[in-house]
C-alpha cells in the first residue's frame, strides 16, 4: 500500500514539475518581449520574422511616426476642447460648432492618413508575404474602426494571437 502511494505521489510531483517547466518554457519568449525596451514592437519582429536590420529600420520608422502622432494628438485634443466648449455653451448647432466639427474631422483623418502611410512604409521593409499580411491586418483595423496609430498597431488591440498562438505582453 505504501509503495503504491509513494508511486502515486512521485507521479503527481513529476507531472507538476513537468507542467511548470513546459509553462515556463512556453512563455519565456513573451516575458522577454515584455522586458524589451521596444516591447511594443517585439511582436512585429516575432510575428513577421524580421531580421535585426529590418527590425532596426522599423524601430526607427516607428519612433519618427510616434513624434508625428504626438503632434496630431495634441492638435486633436485642442480641437476637441474647443468643440466641447462650443457645444456646452450652445443650445443648437451654430456655424462655429460646424466649423469646429469639420476641423476635428480633418485632424482625425490626417492622423489616419499618416498612420496608413506609416503602415505602407513599414511593410516596404518586409518580405512580400509578411508585408501583405501586415498591411491586411493593420489597414483592416485602421479602416474598420477609424482608430489612430496607437490602437491601430497595438497587437493587444487586435486581439492578436500570433502564428505561435500567444499574445504579446501589454505595453
The shape is elongated
Largest sheet: none
**H/I helix tally:** 7
Rg, alpha carbons? 24 Å
Give the topology string: H per helix, E per strand: HHHHHHH
Sequence stretches where pLDDT stays below 50 over 5 or more residues: 29-34, 148-171
Mean pLDDT: 78
Could you say which structural class the secondary elements and strand pairing correspond to?
mainly alpha
Q: Estimate the helix proportion, in percent.
A: over 70%
The total beta strand count reads 0
Describe the structure.
The protein has seven helices and no strands. It is mostly helical. The longest helix is centred in the middle third of the chain and has 37 residues. The radius of gyration is 24 Å and the shape is elongated. The C terminus is likely disordered.
Amino acid at each position: 500500500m505504501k509503495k503504491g502511494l509513494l508511486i502515486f505521489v512521485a507521479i503527481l510531483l513529476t507531472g507538476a514539475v513537468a507542467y511548470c517547466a513546459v509553462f515556463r518554457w512556453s512563455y519565456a519568449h513573451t516575458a522577454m518581449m515584455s522586458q524589451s525596451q521596444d516591447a511594443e514592437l517585439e511582436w512585429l519582429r516575432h510575428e513577421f520574422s524580421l531580421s535585426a536590420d529590418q527590425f532596426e529600420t522599423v524601430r526607427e520608422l516607428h519612433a519618427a511616426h510616434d513624434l508625428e502622432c504626438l503632434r496630431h494628438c495634441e492638435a486633436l485634443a485642442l480641437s476637441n476642447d474647443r468643440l466641447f466648449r462650443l457645444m456646452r455653451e450652445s443650445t443648437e448647432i451654430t456655424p462655429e460648432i460646424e466649423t469646429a466639427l469639420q476641423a476635428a474631422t480633418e485632424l482625425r483623418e490626417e492622423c489616419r492618413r499618416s498612420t496608413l502611410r506609416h503602415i505602407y512604409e513599414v511593410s516596404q521593409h518586409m518580405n512580400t508575404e509578411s508585408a501583405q499580411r501586415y498591411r491586411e491586418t493593420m489597414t483592416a483595423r485602421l479602416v474598420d474602426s477609424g482608430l489612430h496609430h496607437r490602437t491601430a498597431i497595438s497587437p493587444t488591440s487586435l486581439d492578436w494571437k500570433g502564428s505561435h498562438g500567444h499574445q504579446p505582453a501589454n505595453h
